[in-house]
What we know:
The complex is a heterodimer of chains A (about 400) and B (about 350).
Chain A: H1 2-15, E1 35-47, E2 50-58, E3 66-72, H2 75-84, E4 90-92, E5 98-102, H3 103-108, H4 111-119, E6 128-132, H5 137-144, H6 151-161, H7 173-183, E7 185-195, E8 206-217, E9 220-224, H8 227-237, E10 243-249, E11 252-269, E12 275-293, H9 300-328, H10 335-342, H11 344-348, H12 354-357, E13 362-374, H13 391-401
Parallel strand pairs in A: 1-4, 1-5, 5-6, 6-7, 12-13
Antiparallel strand pairs in A: 1-2, 2-3, 7-8, 8-9, 10-11, 11-12
Chain B: H1 9-27, H2 30-36, H3 43-62, H4 71-79, H5 81-113, H6 120-135, H7 139-163, H8 170-173, H9 181-196, H10 218-240, H11 242-247, H12 251-257, E1 260-261, E2 265-266, H13 269-299, H14 308-321, H15 326-358
Antiparallel strand pairs in B: 1-2
Helix pairs in contact in B: 1-7, 1-9, 1-10, 1-13, 2-9, 3-9, 3-10, 3-15, 4-5, 4-15, 5-6, 5-13, 5-14, 5-15, 6-13, 6-14, 7-13, 9-15
Amino acid sequence: MKKAVCVCLALAVALSLTGCSGLTIFSNYRRLENIELVRTVTVDSQGGGGVNVSVYGTAGEQSEARMYERSGPSVGVAMGKLLLMPLGREAILSHTEALLMGEELAKESIRECLDYVERFSEMRLDTGVLIVRDGTARDLLAGLSGADTPASDTIAGLGRNIARVGEGYFFTAREIASSLADNGCALVQCVRGVEEEKLFEERGELNLEPAGFAVVREGAVCAYLTDQETLGAILLLGKYKSRNVDLALPGAAVTVSVDLAQTELEPVFDREGRLTRLRVRLSLRANVINVAGMADITDEAVRRTCEEALTEQMTGAVRAAVRRGQELALDYLDLEGAIRRKAPLKTADMPDAWQDIFPLLAVDVEGKSVLARTYDIADPPELFGKEDKNPWEKLIESLKGS
Amino acid sequence: MGKTDRITERQLSVLIFVSLLSPMIRILPASAVLFAGRAAWLSTALALPAGAALVGFTRWARKNAPEEMGLADMALAGLGPVAGRVFDILCALWLTFYGGFIARSAAERLLATVYPNGNTPVFIVVMLAVALFTASGLTKTLSRTAEILMPILGAVIAVVLLSALPDVSAGNLLPVTYRDLKAMAYGALPIFDVMAASGYFLFLAGRVRRPKAQKPNAFPWLILLAAVAFGVTFFTLGTLGEKLAVSMENAFFMVVRNIKVLGVVERMEAVVVTVWIVTDFIFLAAVLMIVAEIWRTVTGAKKRAVFVAPSAALSGAAAFLVAGNAFAFQRWSDFIVPAVNLLLAAVLIPAVMAVGKLRRRY
């Protein structure tokens, strides 16, 4: 009897576990056709303390992307209106990939946005955070949207590829929050919308391009890094993947793909334990991908010249990134952390505080480049005319001679 | 004591392991990082020998005790009927409160991670009702439940921790030098605190069948518990960094929220939170069972089930009254409860056992 009662009770409970009716115990049950999956969120300042929030997403794989916006005195209020007001669907933020903030808002403070990402249970800390330069985030998102190319895809595509072209890195909310907590400052990737000729109807009016890093101090943007400084920051932060670099030689231009860049830091301490100097060594490996003009890359001397030119460019970028940090007195490159890992005991015993040393610290940057290879065509014969310099032919001739 | 309600030492170890996952995730990594900074991930190495020593001591103390003698009986035998009863009642009252605290903790976690607009009383009442139902039953039923759930929990923990690996940054974990040893020792305290809570389960030791050939079954489970503590601290600290990990209420679940398995499965925090609710439920049911067992011993009653419902009601009251809001509850969770737990489980319980042993009462 007892067993039968238990089975009946279990079955009764099971009835309430599934289904879409009001009888289900899932009070937060959402019908698939009523869900709007948000992929991108933008926040812009409206001045006077107000913000404009827009969300961009789709109802499913096959449906068209839509954009909704609301304004409010704070992100929470505006977002509350967006999520609860009748969009026709219920917006779900759990698949948000990118948070775009307008330049004006970023200058005021990005804290509220970061705080929202951290606190709201639907949002994730690995949401990419971007600052939109020369315009509002809302306008950029609207401009990117095309008939068949959702703006979110364009942003996600840039996020995937930006490190591969060495023009930036999409920092996540977690990385930014962690850097702000540990170093008091952080870098945030900037993007801008550019008007280009619309080649295909399915794409939007604007195209998206990276615009360097912004430096955030005390929760607000205080400076923007140049392209060169951004490259240096990527190299020092270990976020580098690859980049194509043009090297100008006398009478020719060589394009190389730098597919490996490693930095090594060596702190130098004096007898009193003071940090007197920081040596940064940059090791680069590049491959020739294009030669224009009269340059024989099979020639050792030509390659040496290329390597020197590459080293100069890349070490220059590292120097620029460090110098800018020193000017701003902000260790956004986490050099202190790197030095601490390299010499933990000496760093702990330093008589002076890092923030006092850093702005005036002598930083030597040296580099070494290696041109590892080219691809298939080592020395196209037509480039050098009849006076051919193909080393293989030279070798064969010399062998015949001997 | 019913002769049918017997469990093996392995089953008790599994019950302890599954139960202690609940407090472990509540206090780690924040408490350990608060003490040890970025060296917290190595604190488990110091907590494990201390935990092993405690387990070894309890095994030694119980070595010659009769099989059906639980900790409540040992206290009566060792301290005498008056002092023994005072000790037992003190433990029962604390554990009644602790049961409420577990229910409230689980409810607060559900609100913070999955149901932001949820209602704590609903979660507390449901948890207590389910735990009441289970705690009124046999010890072996609860132990079997823990045994069955154990592989699921193990698989979820393994998947979660391994999937978090790509986000771990060496900069958040290093450097650690010999100078951090003192901080690491302090960081080991909260981990040892959780391990010491296994002492409460000695009240159920009278239900354990003692095998003829004594094998140390508890140590592998202690090592497994230490491995989970290490994993939770290592991955959370390595992902979030020292300051961010300390500032979050549920740092581990913030890490879980970002996890993607092989780039295919994501948003799995709801599953993980649910799995952890299972550990809360097991722990709560075990605590109610322990409280009822103590009252049965103290009063000399034949059945313990009659004490479960009043204990659950009192635990429910404690859950509602322990703190007015989540901020106040966090203070209880961070300082008061771990401190009392440490005093009782790591000091008083071993002391009582030592007294009985020295007086040759068992």
